[in-house]
Write a structure and sequence with these properties.
Length: 288
Amino acid sequence: MLEVTRKLVELLDLAPLGDDHFQGESENLGFPNVFGGQVLGQGLMATSRTVENRLPHSMHAYFLRPGNHRLPIDYEVQRVRDGGTFSVRRVIARQEGREILTGSVSFQVEEEGLAHQVDMPPVPDVDGLTSEQALSQRLLPHIPEALHDMLTRDRPIEIRPVNPVNPLKPEPRPPAKQSWLRAQGSLPDDQVLHRCLLAYASDFSFLGTCLHPHGVTFMNRDMQVASLDHAIWFHRDFRMDDWLLYDKDSPSAFGGRGFNRGNIFSRDGRLVASTTQEALIRKRPAGK
């Protein structure tokens, strides 16, 4: 396991505080606030620590307040129900006593059943694509030095966009995007860890899908953008240290909100997870 990936795994390894309470550290990715995927991954890990012999199959979460990456996060898990095959947990993430995320997670025992899936869309093979980190290196002469560390830092999740956008010169394009992603280095055979890592990674580059038709990115100063909620369904087992295709589209934007959805496929075409997210995409009044 690479050092940068080991640090991410440690970030998801929460400290137990007793009575279904856990604490996680925060990481600074160069954003003004805590990265939403971090809170999703840690929240999923917290709930998983209270369930035995069942894997999470869905998570629905709301981002309530921006998180402070300088402070740890406390996670309270509430045991809602343990049935014959399903268990449900609530999770509340807090900083300084204030809720920053609330969500529900459902777990299921492994069982056989009817099976079908949509086909993986045609897409260029990952081996011929360039990573986001390498693409960011090309932008350094054209962006403020204060952003250099954020764009060039070592990343535990490698992302290779299929048709990358130049954030400095965005142009309107259809509301869809694709990227390959994986954790760098080998990971242990722990399906809970792989699902928590995918919850973490599924928030990267998701919000921007609904910005595509409008020719703007998160770097536009007249835009206020933030994730409002996030849901993820895990359909089949997978490995985060092997390439996954993240296929995203945005059916609608209206009223200052953009809706995004995604399907995640293994390299051999299995649909392993699906996601949805609604985002705030508010255009600031002139002069603000």
